[in-house]
Structure formats: structure tokens, C-alpha cells
Amino acid sequence: MRKFGLIGTSLKHSFSSGYFNNKFRSESISSCSYDNFEITTIDALVPLIKSLPELIGLNVTIPFKESVIPFLKELDEEAKNIGAVNTITINPQDDQLHLKGFNTDAHAFRKSLAPLLNPSHSSAIILGTGGAGKAAGYALRSMGLGVVYVSRNPEMVNMDNEVVISYSDLSQSRISKHLVVINSTPQGMYPNSDSCPEIPYEYLTTNHLLYDLIYNPAETLFLMKGKENGAKIKNGQEMLELQAELSWEIWNS
Fold first, then answer.
1. Which end of the chain is more exposed for a tag (fewer CB within 10 A), N or C?
2. Torsion (CA) 28, 31, 35, 39 in degrees, nearest 10
3. Residue 113 and residue 139 in contact, taking contact as beta carbons nearer than 8 Å
4. Catalytic residues
5. What span, in angstroms and rounded, lies between the C-alpha atoms of 75 and 11?
6. 175-212 residue pLDDT tens
7. In this predicted model, what pLDDT tens digit does every residue of 99-131 receive, in sequence order?
8. In order of start, what are the domains of the chain with their CATH numbers?
């Protein structure tokens, strides 16, 4: 049995297990399974892997996309440049674990967002400065967009050469300049669907594009408020599927 899985602290919201196990059934991929592994600390990663010798690949979600890096023997170039990992290959070598990290988020985000962009979308606001936000920023810059990050505590954020502002700095003039707004935070994720990032939604217009990396619920409060003001909206479902397929390619390469 080849086993794969997802690590994170709270995985009840995740569709990954269902997605992969449905894939295995529909494509008649035998002797494979995908499970959720809830861990409270990243220190539990290596004991988990050692307890499951059939485990050959993992996805990584909140809050471990950055803290997992010191446990890896190797990073692919894109994951190194982003500073976040969401996919791991597990290869025992000489009685040691050789864990290699990849980032499939940036590619998936870029591919799902690109068809929605128009020439007026020259710069973006990213809400959140975690691993998902870093992948989104990397992808946006690769498409030629400028990026401004928003954090609750910008003075605590260590992101060299990045513009990081506070939520209170989101003025009407700034919102009108940055027509793409990305939510990379978990705010609004099931089961806390009645919450959303605290931004001045009243300044959004029909020229804006709101993208929420959350896919459960399908329409978060963040997206609802954007739609009420005429903005184009998209959730993270397609991104999930694209990054999952790329993870599968990596595990089988």
C-alpha cells in the first residue's frame, strides 16, 4: 500500500482526502490511500513518518508551510525562493529519511488566476503573510503584478524587500489603486464562516477582483461582500485541484 496524506492542526475543513481517494477510485489506481494527519506541533512530523513506513508523500497546510522547512533535507528551487512548502516527498536513504520540499501552491494559484486578469489589474493586496500568502505573492510577481502585504502586526513580519502594511492603512486611495485583493488568511474558513478579514469593503468596485484561497465554504463572507459591491470573485477550489494534481505528479516522478 502506498500511503499519502495531509498534515495540519485542524483538517475538518479539508477536501484533500476526499479529492485524492475519489481520484484513486475513478482512475482505478489501486493500493493507494490518502489520509489526514492532525498534529499539534511540527515536531510530530518525523515520528509520524517513522510510524508509517508505507508513507511516501505529504501535503502541508496551516500552520506548517514555513515551520516544516528545517525538517527537510532538500528544497526545490521554487519552494526555496518562496520560503514555504506544501508538498513533501519521503525517500528512505541509508536508514535516514530524505525529505524534499516543493511548493505547488504558486503554480496552481497562477494558473487559476491568470484567466481573470485584465490590463487594469497591475497590482495586488495580499491579506496575510504566511506560507500561502508568500506563494501567492511569488506567483503575482511572476505575472508582472506589484504586491502589497497586509498584516495585523506588520512590525513583527520579517519579509525582506516586501511592502507590509496594517489593516488600518487600507485607505480608499490604496484600495482604488490595487484592484486585485487576495485573502490568504484562514478567516472565513469553515466552521468559522461568519468571519472575514476586516477591510473597507465599501471601497470595492466593479473593477476589483477578489480571490479567496479558502474553498470551504464555496462563497466566504469575504467573497460575498466583494460581490455585493460588484467585484469579480473566485474561491480556492480550482487552486486546490491544480496543486493536488501537481503534487501527484511530483510523488510519482
1. C
2. -150
3. yes
4. 65
5. 25
6. 999 999 999 999 999 999 999 999 999 999 999 999 99
7. 999 999 999 999 999 999 999 999 999 999 999
8. 2-103 (3.40.50.10860), 106-239 (3.40.50.720)
